């Protein structure tokens, strides 16, 4: 379960923004009442000293097909930024061409040493790209950019970025949600690259994951309301790596205790090395109600880094902190998520889907509890 193990470590994930004097903030606020995926992208901010734009696209239009009887496909496409010298990724603007089916997108950097393996995987898979539930499927990948509804351009402070060595490739992973409609897609991304690498601070993002133990409502019944059947269903649709994630999370977060079903779950992760947090974000699916990230909860000096008491799937923009926050070894980060199974009968996309005991899964009708802590290491 390479992808799961990597997710529990400090993994570079999405772009961030440090707030300081004159530092621009992310532009990611959709009009009230609109579905963020259908809002026209706002213009990118002007280039700053040393920066340039580079536009990259899927090689061709792709028509997703959900495998294994599911309603979701995760498809990876290999794209080449053709870097001949080191650069830093200081911002990104994903452009979903068919927002009706694009659930989210993630970009993995493939270092020069793994480029041949990525090309071999791409060439050996029929059609465009390859199916990639969990992660990119390429060893040594690093998550350097992402998009979810509510995001527009993710812009970093000028001195912050993700290292892009010469010869690096990018894997564009797109989660296609086919619950409500189908169609073709040819999405693209605009990278903001800084070729002046002096005085740049490299970023990484830690992932905070918590289990999902959400039972059927009192008025629901069916075979998938049994926890074991629900886990087996996730495994059948997405494979052993994703299907085993819930039990892995329970062992990690419950510390050997049996899971306790309920709408709210949390997980604590110890901080092993010093760092500075610049931004945070939370990700759940359609049953999400609230998400929170805390530093040292229940201890003197505890701080709340993210508090979203009314989660909106169409507003998942990265949230910069008002001031950077220092992390020290011995600190604890906690992510807490609340989900509501009653939303299954209300939301158009989920209405009519089979009642289920919801556990961690990659599908739109499954759930996640994910906190993103965007930081630089060292102190």
From TrEMBL:
Domain Copper type II ascorbate-dependent monooxygenase C-terminal stretches: 276-371
InterPro entries: Cu2_ascorb_mOase-like_C, Cu2_ascorb_mOase_N_sf, Cu2_monoox_C, DBH-like, PHM/PNGase_F_dom_sf
Residues making up the signal peptide according to the UniProt record: 1-20
Region (Disordered), start-end ranges: 22-41
Domain of life where this protein originates: Bacteria
Molecular function GO terms recorded: copper ion binding; dopamine beta-monooxygenase activity
Cross-referenced Pfam families: Cu2_monoox_C
Keywords associated with the record: Disulfide bond, Signal
SUPFAM superfamilies per record: PHM/PNGase F
Protein name: Copper type II ascorbate-dependent monooxygenase C-terminal domain-containing protein
Organism, as annotated: Dactylosporangium siamense
């Amino acid at each position: 379960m390479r992808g799961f193990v990597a997710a529990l470590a400090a993994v570079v994930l999405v772009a961030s923004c440090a707030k300081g004097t004159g530092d621009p903030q992310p532009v990611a606020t959709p009009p009230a009442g609109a579905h963020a995926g259908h809002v026209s992208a706002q213009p990118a901010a002007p280039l700053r000293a040393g920066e340039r734009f580079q536009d990259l696209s899927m090689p061709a239009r792709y028509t997703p097909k959900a495998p294994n009887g599911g309603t979701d496909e995760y498809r990876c496409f290999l794209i080449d930024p053709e870097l001949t010298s080191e650069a830093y990724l200081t911002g990104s603007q994903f452009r979903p061409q068919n927002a009706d089916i694009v659930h989210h997108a993630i970009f993995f950097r493939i270092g020069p040493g793994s480029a041949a393996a990525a090309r071999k995987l791409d060439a050996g898979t029929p059609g465009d790209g390859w199916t990639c539930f969990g992660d990119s499927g390429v060893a040594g990948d690093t998550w350097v950019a992402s998009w979810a509804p509510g995001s527009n351009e993710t812009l970093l402070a000028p001195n912050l970025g993700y290292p892009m060595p010469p010869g690096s490739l990018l894997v564009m992973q797109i989660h296609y949600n086919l619950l409500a409609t189908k169609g073709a897609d040819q999405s693209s991304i605009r990278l903001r690259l800084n070729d002046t690498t002096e005085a740049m601070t490299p970023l990484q993002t830690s992932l905070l994951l918590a289990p999902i133990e959400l039972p059927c409502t009192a008025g629901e019944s069916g075979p998938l309301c049994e926890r074991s059947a629900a886990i087996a269903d996730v495994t059948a649709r997405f494979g052993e790596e994703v299907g085993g994630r819930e039990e892995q999370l329970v062992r990690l977060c419950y510390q050997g205790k049996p899971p306790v079903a309920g709408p709210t779950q949390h997980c604590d992760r110890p901080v092993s090395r010093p760092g500075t947090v610049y931004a945070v974000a939370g990700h759940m699916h359609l049953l999400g109600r609230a998400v929170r990230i805390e530093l040292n909860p229940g201890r003197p000096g505890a701080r709340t880094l993210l508090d979203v008491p009314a989660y909106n799937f169409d507003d998942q923009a990265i949230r910069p902190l008002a001031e950077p926050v220092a992390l020290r070894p011995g600190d604890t980060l906690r992510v807490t998520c609340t989900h509501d199974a009653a939303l299954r009968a209300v939301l158009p996309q989920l209405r009519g889907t089979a009642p289920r005991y919801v556990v961690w899964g990659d599908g739109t009708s499954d759930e996640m509890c994910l906190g993103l802590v965007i930081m630089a290491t060292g102190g």
